Each structure stands twice: as C-alpha cells, then as structure tokens.
non-specific serine/threonine protein kinase (Sphaerotilus hippei), 282 residues
Amino acid sequence: MKPPKRLQPLVDEGLIDTVVRQLMSGKEAEVYVVRCGDETLCAKIYKEATHRSFRQAVDYTENRKVKNSRQARAMAKGTRFGREAQEAAWQSAEVDALYRLAAAGVRVPRPHNFHEGVLLMELVADADGDAAPRLNDSVFTPDEARAHHATLIREVVRMLCAGVVHGDLSEFNILLAEDGPVIIDLPQAVDAAGNNHAQRMLLRDVENLRHFFGQTAPELLRTDYGHEIWALYQRGVLSVETALTGQFEHEAGAVDLGGVLREIDDARDEEAARRLRLQAGG
Ligand SMILES: Nc1ncnc2c1ncn2[C@@H]1O[C@H](COP(=O)(O)OP(=O)(O)OP(=O)(O)O)[C@@H](O)[C@H]1O
Ligand SMILES: [Mg+2]
C-alpha cells in the first residue's frame, strides 16, 4: 500500500521498504505491518495527546522523569513547549520500557528503532507468521489458562525486578504468540520505585490477570499474587526465582493509613489529569 504520511520519513530514511497493511487503529496509536529487507516488522504511530484517553493522563502526571526543570515547569504550565515535551516523554516511555524489559528477559516485542514518533518493533506472530491474536480473542482450556496465568505472573515479577510496573496489563495488551504470551503497549509503564501509584497499578495489573483467567480456571479467583508480590518487593527480597504461594495474610483490624493517603493522592491526581485534558483540548 501507499505509505501513510507519518511513515514516509522512515521510508525516506531507508528504515522501511514497504508498508504491507494497517493492523489496528487503537486509542493511542495506529499500527502497521511493514517490510524491511527480509524482515516483517510492526510500526506503531503515536497519535497526538489530544486523542489520548483520560485514564492514561491520570497515572502519567505522576513523577514522570523529565530531563530538566525548565521542561518540568513548562509541562506543569501546559505551554506549547510543555505539551511537546510531554508528548516526547510519553512516546519515549514506551521505547525505554521495551529496551529495559527486553534486556531483563521479559517477553516483549523486540524494539528496532524509534524515529519521528514511530516505534519500529518485532511483529509478534502466531504459528502461521500472521500477527498474533490478543488474549481476549483467544480461547483456552483450563490447563492453558493456568499455564498462561503462571507465565504472566512470572513476567510481572520479572518486570518489577527490572523496576517497571506495566500499568495497563490486561487481556487486550497481551498477544498470544506461537511461543506463548507477549506483553505489549507500555507508554504508561511506571518506575516502580519512584511512583506513588506503583503499588496500586501493580495490584490492578495482577487483578486483571486473575479475573481474566479465573473465568476459565475458577480456582485462580482465590489467589492473591498481587499483595504477595508487592510485600516481597517492598521488603527487598523479591527476585525472579522467588517461589510464590498465591496467598497473602491481610493484617486483621490494621488501619491502612497508606491506603487512605493513596485515596487522597488519587483524587488530587484525577484533578490534575482533568486540568491536563482541558489544556490539551483547549
Ligand atoms: N508488536 C506487535 N506485534 C503484533 N501486533 C501488535 C504489535 N503491537 C501492537 N499490535 C497490535 O496493535 C494493537 C494496538 O497496539 P497497542 O495496544 O500497542 O496500541 P494502543 O493504541 O494502546 O491500542 P489500544 O487502544 O487498542 O490498546 C494491539 O492490540 C495488537 O493487536
Ligand atoms: Mg493497547
């Protein structure tokens, strides 16, 4: 097909030979299948901030690392420079996370390049070499559900040991490749150590897995890997080899002061995200 405008710079640079077809148009990005030499790759074109969803803005506003204070101030004020800086930080967050996780041995698409707001990466493929389906579009036996759940819990641990919480892990952002589940879609990934919402996001990620696979293997609904993993992480004893039980004893009657403070934080952040969205729209 004729390359869409946003891919033309990559064609000009020789990073892409031909554009095969459009794969998806999601909330945040358009995804294409492209050819480069004898390789078939996936090109993800980020949409502009104004087209992105409210939900991501919430977690995004928190503690995102920026290079300098001028940039940080501009981002806070929502000037044009600030919005551009924010945009660049958002896009590079996914690229950074992919490199970091690939290096840590997490099964993510192998990143190839990032150029003019386009991420070139491995095309995750099924047994026929076609783009792999999402978990949501796949059917499993209870045994397969248990096996994929166990694999993905190990991946969550591996990510956390590499300092990353995905933040939007669900059956929509996991592909089923020939060799098993592959985690995608990481622009909202956060630094586990530097983000006040890391715990909440990790618990939500693990809860999504539990709920999804629990539909096929109901005994998974009785597990609580999220709290177990976070408690080990906080004590500094979590490693990729740590044996997990899936059980966690919540302290009876303990006042969850941290939880209360997080609720307050969340309300504040939602307000910040609302303002961010108003700026982006106006
Ligand atoms: N590396 C890849 N290999 C194969 N398919 C991919 C790859 N990356 C993305 N896709 C396909 O494109 C879809 C959208 O990608 P992604 O989730 O990264 O973007 P998004 O804008 O967040 O989309 P959505 O809003 O649907 O979540 C995925 O659900 C998947 O079907
Ligand atoms: Mg997605």
